[in-house]
Amino acid sequence: MNNNRKFLIINGPNLNRLGKREPGIYGAKALDDLKNELKVLAEELLMSISFRQSNSEGDIIDFIHEAAGLYTGIILNAGAYTHYSYAIRDAIASVDVPVIEVHLSNVHAREEFRHKSVIAKETIGQISGFGFDSYKLALQAFNSQIRGNTV
């Protein structure tokens, strides 16, 4: 696999509970279902993807740091850390790896505290509200950038 087609998908706190946690908001599918669906899409797009999940802020920071020099891009669902983790924001700013922020639910249509993302300014974009398709759209956006179809 071409090195410019390797992507890291990082999932933050409580995403290991997909399928069990508030299925009315997050859906009935599990994190493994997301992995499997994204692997299929990545193969179609001739991409290589790796997955990480942690409920720990420090682990997420380490995943971001470790991506430098190894991955072309990061798809990050930082969960609740999105709204207050300046440490994750600083980790994103510290690496030369583009990050797309994703969310399963439309965070802007939910509780007020979810409307603010402290990491958004350091990312190249944010996709929310499309369930698993938020991640798929992020992969497709990176694929488009690789092919030179950026806006």
TrEMBL record:
CDD domains: DHQase_II. Pathway: Metabolic intermediate biosynthesis; chorismate biosynthesis; chorismate from D-erythrose 4-phosphate and phosphoenolpyruvate: step 3/7. It holds the Pfam family DHquinase_II. This is 3-dehydroquinate dehydratase. The keyword Lyase applies. Its EC number is 4.2.1.10. The record marks R21 as: Transition state stabilizer. The keyword Lyase applies. One of its GO terms (molecular function) is 3-dehydroquinate dehydratase activity. Keywords: Amino-acid biosynthesis, Aromatic amino acid biosynthesis, Lyase. It comes from Fictibacillus barbaricus. Catalyzes a trans-dehydration via an enolate intermediate. It comes from the Bacteria. Belongs to the type-II 3-dehydroquinase family. Substrate binds at N77, H83, D90, L104, S105, R114. The active site is at Y26, H103. Homododecamer. It catalyses: 3-dehydroquinate = 3-dehydroshikimate + H2O.
